[in-house]
Amino acid sequence: MSTKRLRVLVLVCSTRPGALGPAVGTWLTETITPRAGELGVDLMSLTIDDLGLPFLDEEEHPSTGIYSHEHTRRWSAIAEAADGFVIVTPEYNYGMPATLKNALDYLGPEWAWKPVGFVSYGHTSAGTRAVQHAKQVVTTLRLVPLGATVALRIADAVHDGRVRPEAALAGAAVGVLDELVSVAHALRPLRERYSKDTLPGPLPGSYVRRLVPDDAPEVTVLQRCCWVEEAVANDTLAMPALHEPLEEVRAWLADWNATGLWWDGRLLGMVRTRRRGDDWHIGRLAVVPDLRGHNLGRWMLRTAESAGEECKRVVLSTGAASHRNIAFYESEGYQVLPDGTPGATHLGKTIPTRNSGTTPTRTFAPAGRA
Known about the structure:
Mean pLDDT is 91; it is low at 356-363 and 365-370. By secondary structure, the protein is α/β, with parallel strands linked by helices. α4 (98-106) links the parallel β3 and β4. The chain is elongated, with a radius of gyration of 26 Å. It has 13 helices and 15 strands. It has an eight-stranded mixed sheet with strand order 8-9-10-11-12-13-15-14, with helices on both faces. The two termini are 33 Å apart.
């Protein structure tokens, strides 16, 4: 399971003056906040009224992600940033409020592969028919509705405009959050794979994306398993990749342009690059040991090279006794440079042109300090 923090949006749907929705939303957030802290979840709460959405007024279809109005772009940014949703809704005439349907219809890709839980309230049915109505819509948007719900029958659960403290209801609310967190973590690989910020990888179902400081735990594990062989070959443990603490990994992830190859939530490989003068530096090229021999390292190397086309030379280094690595780089056109460091071998070559057909058609732009 990913160690990244999740962001959960609690969305209160009723905009009727004097509506009970804000009180239910307040009760919900107060009830689940302690558990959210234990689970590493950031809660955000707002009402649909806060969004200022008129009846759908975008010309382009929501699936395009092309929005002409500021209110749509703001709503898009909020929904995109969320890893899951809890919708607080009343029941109007056996269905969900028009405000909720309108808010859902505004967006498209922002919903995909995110869990959604429901807290409903009403009279005879406690709002459950609104939830059933909403589930027909959210599944079409590729939202994943939870099985756990909270249904408040107003006559039993509400007194003087506030939700009565009750252990069973509180437990049900925490249960919604627990299930939402589990499903959100499980769906994260799908969300990443189909994100606009990813590119297809060399294996079916794999993808590449920029590595960020939040990826430090996964990067640290990959480094530990990949640099043991080099440490043995060079008879030394004095290799940063073997002993860097998380803080240092986070620091260089912010400083370098690092790319990760992922499949089903697993980090299969990585490489980092940055520019220094006319040189394009490549480092920390790694592939999980069980997938070596599938040309993933070669693919990652060529991907890294293609991002430095404005430089004159690409340079990298490996252990002086890492003969397997050196042979691999020489097979890719690198030559050993004379300005070696004790215990290390530096290699370089002229920046290649993009004509091999083995690298992506676009690469991640350099980031961080040069």
